[in-house]
Structures are given as C-alpha cells and as structure tokens.
Amino acid sequence: MKPLILKIAGLNSFLEEQTIDFEKLTKRGIFGIFGPTGSGKSSVLDAITLALYGKIVRGTKEFINKDSDKAYIYFKFAVKSGDEYDTYIVERTYKNNGDGFANTSNVRLMSEKNGSITVLEDKTSTVNSAIEEIIGLSFDNFSRSVVLPQGKFSEFLKLRGKERREMFEKIFHLEKYGKDMEERISRRSKKVYASLSDIQARIDVYGDISEENISELESEIVSLKENLEKVKISCKNAEEKYNEGNILFSDIREAKGYEDKLKELDNIKEDVEKNRVDVLKMQRAFEIKPYIDAFDQCKTQLKNTTEEFSKVKYKHSVCNNKLSDIKSNYENFKKEYDIKHSNLIALKSKVEEMGSVYNTILSDEVEIGELRKEYSSRKKYLEDLENNKGKLENSISLENSRIDELSKTIEESSVSSGYVDDINIIYRAYEDINKIDNENISLIERNKTYDLNIENNNKELEILNKSRESLNSQILDIKNKIEENNKNLVSEDIIENLNSAILKKREIENLNSSLNVLSQQREVLRENKSLLEVERNKLSEEVKKWENSNMAYILAKILKDGERCPVCGSLEHPKKAEAINEILLSEAEKTLEIKNKEYSEAESKFIQIDFDFNDKEKTRNRLIEEIKSIDEKYLADSLENMENSLNELKERQALYNRNIRELPIKERVLSEKLSDVNQSISRIESDIRNDNNYKNENTSKLSENNKEIEKLKSVISSKNLDFKNFDDVSRELLNIKTLNENKDRAEKEKAISEKKRQKFSEELKEVSENVAKINVELTKIKSEGKEKAKVIKLNTERIKSVCGDKKPSHMLSQINSDIDLLEKDEKSKKTQLDTIAEEEKRLKESYINIESVKKQLEEDLPKKKELADNEINNSNFNTFDEVNLWYRSKLEIDSINEDIKSFDLSYEQFKIKLETVNSRINGRFITKEEVEILKKSKEELSNQEKDIEKDIAVKENNIKTMNKGIKEVESLRQQEKILIKENDTVENLKKVMKGKKFVEYIATNQLYYITKEASKRLSHITSGRYSLELKDSDFIIRDNFSGGDERDVNTLSGGEVFLTSFSLALALSSKIQMSHNAPLEFFFLDEGFGTLDSNLIDTVMTSLEKLHEEHLNVGIITHVEELKERMPVKLIVTPAKPKVCGTKVKLEIM
C-alpha cells in the first residue's frame, strides 16, 4: 500500500483544509517532515490512521480543533494487485458532540478506476472491515509497521537479560504469551482447585450414607406401620364410644331444656286465656270506630269552615277599599312621569355627543405626552452621542501613543539567532552531563542492590536445599503407605453377599412379626363382624315390626262403624290400632343403615387383612428358600454377629478407598512443592549469575560515561562563552525566552491596538452622522406638539357650553341615574296596583268556595250521626266512649292473636320433642365428666396415631434423601475424577509457563527470524560490511571487512548503532506484514536522530537512499537542521497562529 493524496481540515492544530501530495513527496524515495515541536507533524500520521481505521494511536477522541465544529479527512491510496495498482479513496467527517468529543457524521469508502468513482461502503463498521481486508493489516499492526520506533530499537540492541525480555514483550506484543497467559492459567488453576474443593466438600456432606442404613430405616418403618394399625383400631373404638356417650349426654341436656320450656309456658297460660276473650271485644270496637271517627271529623270541619268564612268575608271588604285609593294615586303620578322622562332623554343625547369630543381631547393629550417623552429621549440620546464622540477622539489619541511605545519594545527585545544556537548547544551539553551523572549514581546504587540480592539469594538457596531434603523424605513415606494400603483391599462380592444375607434374614424377622399382628387383627375383625351381623338382624326385625304396626293404624283411620274390617271382617271396631311415633321409626331406620354400613366396612377390612396375611406368608417362605441357597460360611448364628462382620469389612473398604483417594493427592502436592523448590533453586542460581553479570556491565558502563562527560566539556569550552555552570546557561536561556515572549506579546498588543484604533475611527464617523440626524428629528417633534394644543383648546370650549364645569361622563352618569330612579318609581307603583287587584280577586273566589263547603257540611252532619248510632245499637257497647276504650289498632290485634297462636304451637312442639328425646334416652344416664374422659382417651390415641404417621413420613423421606444422596455421591465422584485430571493438566501448564519460559521460547524464535532479516538489510545498506547475529541469546556484529571479527554491540559508534537498530526496525515491519496480502511501501522514522553528528548523518542518508531500490519510501519526522538541509524532498509544517489560522503545510523539492 502506498499513499497518494491526504487532505486535512479541523484536526488537532489543522483548521483550514491542507493537501499533501504523497506522489510528489515520495518521488525521490526519501522525504522529511520538518517543523518545531507542537507544529502538527504527528497529526499527519493521525490523519492517515483516522481516515483508514477511524482512530488514532493515542486513543483520544478529543481531536477536533477548538475553533471548528467538525474535522474532515480525505485519503487516497493505492494497493498493489498483481502487476497493477487498485486505487481507493476514504473520506471521514467528525462533528463535535458538545462535550469536546468527536462523533462520526459521515464516512465513505470509494474505488477509482479510469477516472470513475464507485462508492463501496458508507457505514463506519463496514468501512473499517473493508479497509482491514484491502490493506491486510489491523489497526495495531498498521501502526507498528508505519511508524518505526527507532529509539526503542537502539535501546533494545544494548539491553540484556530480564530488561531486554520485558522490552521484547512490549515491542512484539508478547504479553499474551507471558504475563497474560500466566494470569489466565493461574485463574484457571484457582477455579479448578475451588471446584475440586467444592466437590470434595459436597461429598463429605453426605457422610457415611449406605444401603445398610437404608435397610435399617425400612425395617423401622415396617415395625411402625404394624404398630400404627393397632393404634388405628383402638382409636376407632375410642371414637365410637365417645360419639355414643356424647350423643347421649346431648339428648339428656336437650330433654332438660324442653322440660324447662314447658314449665315457663305453664306459668303464662292464664294470661293467654284472658287475652283470648279480650281480643274478641277489641275486634268489634275496631269495626265500629270508623263510623264514630267520620261523625267527629264532619263536626270539626263544620266548626272550622264557619270560622274561616267570617275571616275571608272581612278581608275582602278591606282589600276592595284599598284598591280604589291606590288606583287613583297611580293615574295622577303617570301624567307627571311622562313629561320628566322625555326631557331627560333629550339632555342625554347632547351629553353623549360631548363625551365623544372629550375622548378626542384625551387622545390628543396622550399624543402630546408621547411627543414630550420622545423629545426628552432624543435630547438625552444627543447628549450621550456628544459625550461618546469626545471619548472616541480621546481613545484614538491614546492608541496612537500605545502603538509608538510597543514598536520601541519590539526593537529592544530582538536577539541574534546565532547566539541562541550556541546557547542551546551548551545547554544540551550540560543537560547530557547531568543525565550521565544521574545515570552513574543509579548504576552505583544498582550495583549495591545486586550485592545485597546475591547475599539474600545465597541465604534463600541454603533454606531451599533443606526443604528439598525434607520433601523427598515425605514423598518416600507416602509411597510406603500406598503399598501397605493395597494389602487391605476387600472384594466387593464378599460385602455384597453378606449384606444380601443380612437383609433377607432381617426381612424374614419383620415378616414373622407382621404375620403375628395380622393374625391377631384378622381374629378381632372376624369377631367384630359376627357381632355386627347379630345387631343388624335384630334391628331389621324391629323396623319391620314398627312398619307393620303403622300399617294397622293407617287401616284403622279409614274404618267406619258398620263397615267390615278388610283384615278380620268384623263390623264392630271396639279397639282400633294406635299411631306409631314416626320420629322413632325414622331413628330406627337410620340406626339400621349405620349398622349395615359398619358391617360392610368390617367385612372389607377382614378381606384386606386376610389378603395381606397370605401375601406376606408367601414372601417369607420365598426368602427362607433364597437364604438356603447362600454359602453357609457367610451365615452366622445371629443377625448381630453377621452385621458386625459386615461393618468390619466396610470399614476396611472405606479406609482403602479414602487412602487410595487421598494418598496420591498428597504425593502429588508434595511432588509439586518439590518441583517448585527445584525451580526456585534453579531460578535463584540463575539470578545470582545474572546479578554478577549486570554488576560487571554497570562497572563497564560507568567507565564509558566518564569518557563521555570529558567529550561534552570539550564541546562547551569550544564555544568561548563565559558560562561557569548549567545554572548560568539556564538563566541566559530563560532571559532570551523572556525577551522573545516580550517581543511576541508586544507584537500581539500592537496588532490589537491598531485594530482598536481602526474600530474607534469607524465608531467616531458613525456617531457624528447620528448627531445631525437627531437634531432634525427634534425640530419635527416641536411642530407636531403645537398643532395638537390648538385643537384641544377649541373642543374644551364646546364641552363647557353644554356641561358647564362637569365632565360629560359624570353628567351622563347623573342623567342615567335620574332616568333609572324615575322608571323604577313608576314600575314600583304599577306593581303595587297589580298586586292589590290580584289579592282582591283571590279573596272573592275564596269567599264563594268556603260558603259552598259550609252548606254541604251542614247537610252531612245528621246523616253521619245516625250511622254511628245504628252500629253501637247492634253491638255490646252502650256509648261512643266505651267503644274508644276497647279500640286497638289492626297491628295490635294481630300481634295479640299471633302471641296466642305462638303459645299454642310452642306448647305442643315442646311436648312432642320431649317424648321423642326420652324414647332415645330409654332410661340411660351419663355425666359430663364421663364424656370428657372418653374424649381425652380418643384424642390421646389420635395424637399417638399422628406421631407414628409423622415418624414414618420422616423415615421414608430420609430413605428417599439417602437414595438420592447415593446417586449424587456417584455423580460427584465422576466429576472429582475429571477435575483431578484437569488440575494435573493445569499444574503441568504452570510448570511450563513458570519463569516466562514459554515467552522466551517464542521470543527466541521471533528474534532468530528478525535477526536474520535485519542482518540482510544491514549488509545491504552497509555494502556488505556488517551482518547481525545471535550468540548465547545476545546480539553481536560481524565486521566482514576485518576478517569477520565479532564485535559486542556496546562497542558500536552512534552511526553504527543507528544503522543496526534501523535494520531491526525494518525487519520487524517486514515480519508484521508477512502474513498479509498488501505490504506497505512506506514508513516513518520519528526517533533517534538527535545525537547524530554530520559524518553519521551522511552515512545514514546514504543507507536510507538505498532503500528506494527496494521500492520502499522512507519519511523522517525530525527537527534536526542538518537532516533538513540534506533531505531532497521536504514537507514544511508551520505551527498554527491562535485566532489567526491553523497549521500550514508546504512541499519543497531540491
């Protein structure tokens, strides 16, 4: 890939769009990018990576120029495809999001062929992917290939041991095979160890669960279930006794209640009989009372109507007289009202006209006020303009004086450039001497540290050797224990056969116990069933007897004297059959139904028990036969002895399993510790050797540094300037810097003052024009004010002629008020007349109506008296007062009758209920205490039943949990084996990665290739004189012009170091690009030129020019003047000027 054109705008210090033509820039194969520090040289590289990958090496997103709201990059490049080049263009635009960060607003990737442009992608993600595919390099690899860190390779060339390895990791990005890989393996080791510990802990949680424990629990459950059946039977019997006793106690208590109720009813029986007689008189009085009420009501109405007739007659007379007086007064008032009303209306019209005139005056006065305000405002503005004019003239005079002073300061602050260069050389020399002195101090301190490290490492080595002997002894001891453990191995078949015999023998014993219980239960149920059958047959006969008796009663009810009996044929019936109590018959039928149900349940239980007995008996016989087939040597005289033998075998097997699991782990842990100790010993011995080597190297370096200090002092004395030390030079540089700053500041202030003077002159011209304009406007305002005043005076005289001294609005309000009062007075008098007329009409109609009602009542009164007298004559009453005395309301009469009926019904019901309950009691008796004893017995048995069921449920759940636990332990054992295997693998990896051996292995292979490639390039650019080789993992230079002599890299001159490290950088770039499809045809060098003298620069330039033969274009980024003078093609970068312009670029070709 080679660049063609780059356009930059708004990026970092670039503001206006700048174009770089790389076709011209790379024409001679080598070019330089020159400019002072901070000018924007590195922004050229940022623009290329930003255009291609959308990011820059420094990783920041704050790259938009602060004086711009967007950044634009256009990059045109070519990629070789066979013998031809494909041309691509990528454009990106970034906008500021308001927080100083950049967001992509537009991106396009295009291809160019024969002048035609085609858009390939227009989204950030797809453009980034396409660029990586076209170039064949990721952002990271592109950055390392394009910008070669020359200074780092010079340093890398001279480093040894650990320091070189660490730098090698950084340059070749090998952290993922070193520290990162170790951390990943360590994390995995911790995770596997934690998982293994977790699995082993989970196995330990289950303890000693086994099939034997499950069998013991099953036996206990069988025993508990047998006991449960017995308790259930006892509980049922207790419940039946309690229910029978409780029902009897309830019946006794119920009978007592009925007896008490009948006594209470006997106490009120006499009062009920009296009410039965009185209620008849009350009902007759209730029938007569409406006739008496009708007579009394008619009498009262006649009296009231007569009184009201007299009152209405008087009121009508008074009202009629009043109406005549009011009518006469109203007619006189109406004539006077018409005259006054017409006069007020005429005056109102004139005053309204004057109101309009008055409003015109007010409007004119407001306009005059506005004119006065405007005149005053303009007058004040004119004064301000006059004052401002004077100030501007004064400011222009002051700026002229300021410009003269600043010109003089600029002239006094100028310093010779040659003098500044000499000062800088001396400053750098003193600075280098200080650096070397500091380095010497550091080297001396490091040697002290190496001595201390060697002493500490020797002590640690002694401790580790003792630890190694101890670990070897412990490992031997564990191996002996493993051999001894193998002797305790017990066959699984022996344990399984013995366990099977124990289980079957225990099951036979349990079955014998169960058969005994079932046999007893079967006999109890057989007896119970027989008793129930006898009771059921007895009840059945009794019910049939009662039913037959009741049939005789039904026939007797329909028999009549003289008719023949359908049963005996007799015509006489001296003693008929009596009715049987239906409640007793119903109770007997219910009891029979209960007994039938109990019999069915007893029979069902008997069948179930009999079936269980036969089934268990068969199982027992089968197990007896199976035990006979087991080898006699496993059968002991008792079950306890067999179980003891089994437990002993299991303990031996558990001990064997525990040892077979734990001893290899302990051996492995100790072996790992031994391996760690051996590695630590090797590492410490290596560290001691390395520390001795580093100490010797530092001593050699101290000698070289002292020689370099003498050279630098010679450079200082050659400049013939009177500076005694570094501080004098620093002060002089600071003084020069101050002068330059003063000059720059004065130039900036002069420019500002000139701008101010120009601005003040323009403002003065504008103010003068405004003064003339304001004077014209003031004259016009005065003229308009005088015209308005004349019109106001004429209108004021017109209003006075009509309204006098009053305002039209006030006078109009008075007139309207007078009209309203007059109209209200007329309306009030008219309303009064109408009201009296209506009242007179109403009284007249009322007088006629009342007179008619009075006549009707006088006719009805004798008739109603006659009807009431007739009703009393037909009853047992003598007078109206006697009827009123016995009168009660319908509700009261119904209530008394209801009470009588209720008494009769209750008395009969309690009597029947008492007879029914007494028949159920049948002479029996029970106390409350006896019922409580039965209840307590029932509850105790019920609680005992629940406790047994709960115990069974707990044990069954334990069996379920233990079965699940056995499966879980088997699963965990499998997981444990897998994790132990994985743990072994991880531990082996840790050993491999320990001490960064793997990184060293990869680095050695990488270094071998890069050294070989760098040697080819070094030989080419030095015309075959030098080649680079590896010897004992250290670099050596072979001088082919001196018979192939080997030289240590520390003996190389500055130029030789530069060429060698440059070859290494090119080799790295080639290695990065090897696996990709579009090799780069250009790169930049941005370090390592500051210390080259003129002779070395010649050598470097000659070497760089040879690269052009390999179709490589090299760009050098530097501020070294000697390189700038010798560079055939230059890109000059001029720094940005704040508030004036951004960074500028200019192409120069020699």
| Annotated CATH topology of the domain at 2-137 and 1076-1149 | Rossmann fold
Overall CATH architecture of the domain at 2-137 and 1076-1149? 3-Layer(aba) Sandwich
For the residues shown, what is the average pLDDT?
A: 78
Radius of gyration: 66 Å
- Oligomeric form of this entry? single chain
What does this structure look like?
Residues 6-229 form the Rad50/SbcC-type AAA domain. With 1150 residues, the protein is an alpha/beta fold. The chain has a domain at 2-137 and 1076-1149: P-loop containing nucleotide triphosphate hydrolases (Rossmann fold, 3-Layer(aba) Sandwich), CATH 3.40.50.300. Helix content is 75%, strand content 9%. It contains 22 helices and 15 strands. The chain has helices at 22-25, 41-53, 124-135, 139-146, 150-158, 161-172, 179-205, 211-267, 269-412, 417-486, 492-558, 582-628, 639-718, 726-803, 808-873, 880-886, 890-921, 928-993, 997-1021, 1054-1073, 1094-1106, 1121-1126; strands spanning 2-9, 18-21, 30-34, 70-81, 84-96, 102-113, 116-121, 147-148, 1026-1031, 1034-1039, 1045-1048, 1082-1085, 1113-1118, 1129-1134, 1144-1149. Strands 2-1-4-5-6-7 form a six-stranded antiparallel sheet. A hairpin with an 8-residue loop joins β1 and β2. The longest helix has 144 residues, at 269-412. The model has no long low-confidence stretch (mean pLDDT 78).
